[in-house]
């Protein structure tokens, strides 16, 4: 097994590591709200297809939590500093 040395991980950490280490193309289809982990993990996908109903929102600024799912790193790379800051610091929907 490729992840034998990572078997100590569980839950969310294991889920994120599996997405990062996935060897096939990951395509995300969004047809409505992507909230929380559904939003933060999308930056790890290779290609996204969004309907006109899609929007993206993270709850961290309003509940005083820290960003999850590598969003603090990936968001800036994918959408630029200004847009990433708007979402991560101020909870602005996109």
Please summarize what this structure is:
The chain is an alpha/beta fold and 94 residues long. The chain has helices at residues 11-20, 37-40, 60-63, 71-90; strands at 27-30, 33-35, 47-50, 55-57.
Description of the molecule:
- With 94 residues, the chain is of the alpha/beta class.
- It has a single domain (25-90), classed as 2-enoyl-CoA Hydratase, Chain A, domain 1.
- It has four helices and four strands; from the N terminus they run H-E-E-H-E-E-H-H.
- A two-stranded parallel ribbon has the order 1-3. Strands 2-4 form a two-stranded parallel ribbon.
**Strand percentage, roughly?**
5-15%
Helix-strand category: alpha/beta
Q: Could you state the order of secondary-structure elements as H and E?
A: HEEHEEHH
Instruction: Give the integer mean of the pLDDT values.
Output: 86
Q: Number of DSSP helices? A: 4
Overall structural domain count: 1
Seen as an oligomer or otherwise, the chain set is: single chain
Strand element count: 4
Q: Tell me the Rg in angstroms.
A: 14 Å
Which superfamily, in CATH terms, is the homologous superfamily? 2-enoyl-CoA Hydratase, Chain A, domain 1
Widest sheet: strand order?
1-3
The CATH architecture comes to Alpha-Beta Complex
Helix content: 40-55%
Determine and state the CATH class.
Alpha Beta
Low-pLDDT regions: none
Q: Characterize the main sheet.
A: 2 strands, parallel
Shape: globular
């Amino acid at each position: 097994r490729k992840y034998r040395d990572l078997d100590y991980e569980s839950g969310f950490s294991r889920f994120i590591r599996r997405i990062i280490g996935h060897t096939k193309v990951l395509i995300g289809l969004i047809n409505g709200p992507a909230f929380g982990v559904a939003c933060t993990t999308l930056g790890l996908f290779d290609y996204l297809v969004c309907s006109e109903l899609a929007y993206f929102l993270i709850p961290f600024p309003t509940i005083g939590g820290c960003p999850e799912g590598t969003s603090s790193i990936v968001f800036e790379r994918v959408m630029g500093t200004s847009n990433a800051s708007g979402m991560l610091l101020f909870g602005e929907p996109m």
